[in-house]
Amino acid sequence: MDVIEELLKSISINDFNIGSAHWVDVTHINNPHSFFVRPTVYRKYLPVVQAYGDNLLPADLQLQQIVVFKSKLMKCHVRGQVLSIQDEDSETTCDLYALDNGCIEKSVKLKKVYKPFHTFNIPTLAIHCQLADCQPQNETWSQKPIESMKYFVGKERARIIIRGKTIDSLIVELHNSCPDDIATMLALCGYSTLGYGENMVSRFPSTTTEKHYFTFNELKVGEEITVRMQIGQSLTSFFVAQVSDYKRYINERDNFTYASKKQQILRLEDVKAGLPVGVLIDTYMKYERAVIKEITVPDSRVKVQLMDWGKILEVPYNSLKPISHQFITYPAMAIYCCVEENQTWDNSLYKFLYPGYEFKITVVAIGNKFDSPYIVHISPIV
């Protein structure tokens, strides 16, 4: 379809160069350091992107699946990605990430979820941003500055000026019909302070050494976190991810896939155990961060472990791409776990192994990357 082809050609993270300006719709606000915009040039494509077909049946619903659903927040049909599935009281609901808006809607009834009319692989149109020169008065954002930002932004179109970039967001000035930019408006009202945050690009060059290996999240004994199941065959060997990390992963995955597609296939002479790579996953045609575990068939096939899922796969050489430094800088999302001994035989806990199931873990003993698991106590979210 010509409209879709035109849209795909127009989508590029490289368009957002530092110093460039863009007209946008602000689609969702978490706080001044986490909000989503969508370029106004995409408005004309939304009717095609959000077109929907038949209702989904429970048997058809899968995690990571792209769907169209009737949004209670946006009051229209929008594209979504399935984050988790719940079956309670003979009714199926799911949590969905609105790809073109940047928000999550929980417990959406299946009767409001549809198959997309078009099956094109279109990246998310929502872009994660944070305000430049805008810091909370305390360590976190309270409700007042968040509500004030929503009031100042309103429903009108806005203009962003790119001031910097992080691994998962653009650092921007945000302007609309207000007398000053939004960061200044918040400061004038006493809800924030003007200044540089830790994510702002320094004016002075740093001399840090470029990493060529993945790092891992480090947890402490007694630490409790909310996680989602990534993959697990038993309570003694499973991989989870912090829910907050998973949301960032969803935002970043399309950017990683886009960047990987632009890379040349990894050279044969560069293939070696321990090398970080991007690997194409055929089932959903996206690239994932991985590390080569071993060469199984010389010049043909390797085993890789997905850093954000924990899963080990055997793949052909031609599915491997070099990985850019920017995608190595944040830790592996997957956390290798095993329940403590007194939970090993608790049959009621096997439901936690369902991919996407959210629960809490408390660290009992420290693990070591993907080599030895964290010993954890698992409990439901109350």
TrEMBL record:
UniProt-listed Gene3D superfamilies: 2.30.30.140, 2.40.50.90
Source species, domain of life: Eukaryota
Residue span, Tudor domain: 270-330
Signal sequence annotation: none
GO CC annotations, alphabetized: cytoplasm
Protein's name according to its UniProt entry: Tudor domain-containing protein
